[in-house]
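Morning - adenosine-5'-triphosphate inputs below, output right after.
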Amino acid sequence: RISEDQLRIKEQKQRVGEFMAKIGIMGGTFDPIHYGHLVAAQEAFYQFKLDKIIFMPTGIPPHKKREEVLGARQRYLMTIMATEDNENFEVSDIEVNKNSPSYTVETLRDLKKIYKNTDFYFITGADAILEILAWKKPEEVATLTKFVAVTRPGFALDEFRSSIKSMNPAPELLEIEAPALATSSTDIRKRVKEDRTIRYLLPDKVWRYIYNKGLYR
Ligand code: ATP
Ligand code: MG
């Protein structure tokens, strides 16, 4: 761990542009957050020596049917519960506080204003590329962030690579392999509905919250 003095020097250098900070952005619906998300974020944090990871729950996801998604407040709360014991993880409320659909390009513009001299690493599962291509202004997104593609069982990275390359300008693409976690939020919601167990697929605090509030029944 670095001392407070070292941290101050680093921050000073960053302010004057002598040093670029590296921040990972883990965006998602997080309906609910699970160990797949956490393991992917942690892996990216270590592999690219990031300064921190910002989890960014979407407010109104532009590509999902509204009535099928749990309210932003509860998804945001569960994301906080899941990440609060990791000093390198933070949760942003930028998107959940919006009344309009969350577009990544807008969020990245907001983050650029807050964090000067910072490189962003947008962490995404290989399956999320189709959504990326449907994003508003993908060309601008490419200028605002690098991408970290996390291989996830059942999703071929080839398709991801060619989709990224066909973008103009093409964003910088980094690839990592996270330990195979077949968990998805869809599977967790289905399990709750069918009265099957979800323990150990997501942090204890989160599944307890789900049961206490009677979510996904
Ligand atoms: P849903 O089943 O509702 O689509 P999800 O489990 O895919 O939920 P999202 O909130 O849609 O979760 O995903 C947020 C990000 O996390 C996406 O980039 C997605 O690809 C990635 N992700 C989701 N599950 C995993 C996993 N098990 N391993 C690695 N990455 C994952
Ligand atoms: Mg998904």
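Note: The beta strands are 21-28, 52-57, 89-91, 118-125, 146-151, 173-177.

O.
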